[in-house]
Amino acid sequence: MAGCWGPWLPGVATGHNRNSGLRASRGARSTSRVSLGTDGRPGIHRAATGLGLPEDVRKKSHTAMAASTFQTRQFAAEDFVESAGAVVFHLSRKEVCLVRHGPLGQWLLPKGRRNCAEHRHHAALREVQEETGYKCHVLPVTMKTRAPPAGEVAYPDKPRDCDDLREPFFLTTRDLGNNNIKLIWWFIAAVDESIAIQQCVQAPEDEHFEPRFFEYETAIEVLTFDPDKAIVMRAVELVNATYHQS
C-alpha cells in the first residue's frame, strides 16, 4: 500500500495518487477502499460484505493514524527495482576492472538487476561475470557500519568499525521518474589472480561490454560518471586501509 496516504501525511510519497484507492482495489476480490473520514483523515473502509471491524479495533485504528516524524517515501514492489554491482580489484597489480559500453562509449562499473530470490552479493558477482567474463569473490574489508553485530538484539544505531565485512559498502539511489526508484548495492570484489588477468576466463555475455583493468588513479579518471568515480575512490580507500596498500 505504498504511497496510499500521500495526500494527507507530510513527507510521504504521493506518486500513487494517480490510482483510485488502494492498488488492491483493482482485483475482483477486493473488499477495501480508501476515502476521507469525517475528521478529514484517510481510512480503510470495508465494503458491504458484513465484515465490519470490531468496535475496539475501530477505535484503536483512529488513534494509530498519525504522521511519522521522519521524512518518508514508500514504494510498492512494482515501483522499485534493485541492482547490484561491484568494484573489482586485482590486488597484486593494484588495478580495478571497468567495462566500456561500446555503442555509448561510456566507461562504467559492472552491475545489473537482482533476480527474484537472489542474494544481493550473488547478484553482484553474477553481473560481474556476465559483463566482464571474470569470476570473482566478495573481498572482506574493514569499514564502518551501522548494522549491529550478528546475534545482537539491542545495539546502538551509530557507525562502528568492523573487520572482515562482506556487506555493501555503498548504496546508490536513482530516481526513475513517475515515482519509480532504483536501488544499487555496491560490493568490493576481487578476481582469482591465478587465472584471471591475462584475458577473460570467458567472453562477456553482453557483446556490448569490453572489460579492462586500470591502475586505481587511471580508473577514477577514465570513468564517465562522477558518482562512479566516488564509488571507486571509496573502495580504494577501504582496500588500501585493510590490506595496507600504499
Description of the molecule:
The protein is α+β, with helices and mostly antiparallel strands and 246 residues long. It has helices spanning 55-64, 120-132, 216-222, 226-243; strands at residues 32-36, 42-46, 80-90, 95-101, 106-108, 111-113, 136-138, 141-145, 160-165, 170-177, 180-191, 209-215. The protein folds into 2 domains: 1-74, no CATH class; 80-243, Nucleoside Triphosphate Pyrophosphohydrolase. A hairpin with a 4-residue loop joins strand 4 and strand 5 (106-108). Helix 3 runs antiparallel to helix 4 (226-243). The model is unreliable at 1-33 and 44-50 (pLDDT under 50).
Which key phrases capture this entry?
single chain; 246 residues; alpha+beta; Nucleoside Triphosphate Pyrophosphohydrolase; 2 domains; two-stranded antiparallel sheet; 4 helices; 20% helix; 30% strand; globular; disordered N terminus
